[in-house]
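2024-03-11 09:14:02 INFO worker-7 job=invfold-0412 stage=load source=structure_tokens
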């Protein structure tokens, strides 16, 4: 008699869950990135026609705001990276998930983003994206919900092996680390590697 297959171990289950979440994150980020391109084109046309920006830009309906919740701590957040290929670059971002029991406030502004290789900080140029990424500003994160720091990564020509992690440093001391998910094409070994990095935004 053939013995029934043994159930997967706890470690195997954790690995499968992480892989499934990574695939889901890639699909969502790439789909929303297409929305970002369309939205940027629409905003350009609107601006050319003389339209004004919204008076309450940055406000989100139903967002309790910064004063209503304590600042997020690294211990209550998990961070994962999802990238997909985009004409030689990598397009996607970092999903920041609140794994704690209470709503918390995110520091505002773009995080300082570093690329790490076995404990060393690698040279990279970080800039604000030329077009807005989708989603309202994420001022708070409820338990079980996420914010996204959008990124587009260009030109990686590293000769010391593959980078291992991104490190995000927010105002106020919050630091988050996530494993690297792929590398962009090497376009010029004499040019720096560069990143477009957004402020934290809500998923679409």
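2024-03-11 09:14:09 INFO worker-7 stage=emit residues=204
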């Amino acid at each position: 008699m053939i013995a029934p297959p043994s159930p997967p171990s706890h470690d195997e289950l954790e690995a499968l869950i992480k892989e499934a979440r990574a695939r889901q994150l890639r699909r969502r980020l790439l789909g929303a990135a297409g929305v970002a391109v369309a939205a940027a084109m629409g905003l350009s046309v609107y601006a050319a026609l003389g339209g004004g920006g919204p008076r309450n830009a940055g406000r989100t309906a139903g967002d309790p705001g910064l004063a209503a919740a304590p600042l997020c701590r690294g211990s209550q957040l998990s961070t994962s990276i999802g990238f997909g290929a985009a004409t030689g670059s990598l397009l996607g971002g970092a999903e920041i998930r609140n794994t704690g029991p209470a709503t918390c406030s995110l520091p505002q502004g773009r995080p300082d983003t570093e690329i790490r290789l076995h404990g060393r900080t690698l040279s990279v140029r970080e800039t604000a994206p030329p077009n807005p990424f989708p989603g309202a500003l994420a001022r708070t994160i409820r338990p079980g919900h996420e914010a996204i720091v959008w990124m587009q990564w260009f030109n990686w020509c590293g000769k010391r092996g593959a980078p291992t992690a991104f490190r995000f440093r927010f105002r106020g001391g919050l630091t988050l680390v996530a494993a690297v998910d792929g590398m962009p094409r090497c376009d010029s070994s004499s040019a720096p590697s560069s990143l477009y990095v957004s402020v934290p935004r809500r998923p679409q």
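2024-03-11 09:14:09 INFO worker-7 stage=report msg="The two ends are 52 Å apart (CA to CA)."
2024-03-11 09:14:10 INFO worker-7 job finished
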